[in-house]
Amino acid sequence: MSSPLDNLPESKVQHQSAFGQLVTGPPGAGKSTYCHGLHQFLTALNRPIHIINLDPAVSNPPYPCSISITELVDLDSVMEEYGLGPNGAKLYCLEYLEANFDWLIDRLDEVLENDGGNGYVVFDTPGQVELWTNHDSLKNMVEKLGKLDYRLAAVHLSDAHYITDASKFISVVLLALRAMLQMEMPHVNVLSKIDLLSTYGELPFDLSYYTEVQDLSYLLAKLDSEPRAAKFGKLNKAMVELVDDFGLVGFETLAVEDKSSMINLVRLVDKMTGYVFIPHNQDSEDDMNAVNTQALFGSVMSGGNGNDVRDVQERWLNNKDAYDEFEREQWAMEWEERKRQQSSGNKHQHRHQHDHEH
Known about the structure:
Layout: E1 18-24, H1 31-44, E2 50-53, E3 67-68, H2 75-82, H3 86-99, H4 101-112, E4 119-124, H5 130-133, H6 137-147, E5 150-159, H7 166-183, E6 187-192, H8 207-211, H9 218-224, H10 227-230, H11 233-246, E7 251-253, H12 259-273, H13 285-300, H14 309-318, H15 320-357
InterPro entries: Gpn, Gpn2, P-loop_NTPase
Keywords: GTP-binding, Hydrolase, Nucleotide-binding
GO cellular component, one term: cytoplasm
């Protein structure tokens, strides 16, 4: 016999929510290095962070990993079972994850359980560009997460080395534009490894030309002078005009081991996702202070003036050696001060213990 309760709607499951980043970029762009550096950086600030590895080819990521797609499916098994190559197997793994999206949500609920809705997740993606330029599985999962109140921004990394070659730079810009159009989410493009740029020789233009993606027609003369690119003159001109017409692409800069560089990028992403506007937790004054300290960090550090590309050029290109020497001196002074404070603290503790015993 049926019961009147049988026709009642099922209770809606309350899932956890979070802020975070979707880290994309081609192979060698420094995605894993960035994720590892971000984990160290935010952990030092006492901000909860969970990194989710979405690369089925990496079973042991170099960073502390809260969730890995390899818990569900791994690349070697898919290649062996279905006779696929590495690229096809990666596409299959992402499709399999999408089909088992409930598994991902359950795992996210587990790791975010104690973060009170203000957790921070970072999704590290494979370097296969099709996954975030042409294939829909990753996009579909990001859209589903958005409906569950995950406030994410895409951080798209490109190796700064590519700006030293006109044809490579245009390719990087086109790839970034394609990712922006495909993913349809808050998006920041980043030139990574900016600290290595001085080793590649002098740039034809100031760094601001590349970060602001100014009139790319100036690069056409350079392309026309290259034998391998000159025969594609009309195609080069059409691609440059396409980028200029959209007017969407610009780049931030990143040196993972440089604190000010990380501060600027984290602050920018915090603004894009709304992390700076986390509401007070009225149930606990301590929680309220901690949450607001984390949120305000994103908007007020470094004076809140943004990452001036002229300062970046001065630091990493024009006077890198002088700045490196200055930083070494600052680190030495800081280390000596820490040792002095630690020694003073140990003496105070020993004196207090001695007085207590007598």
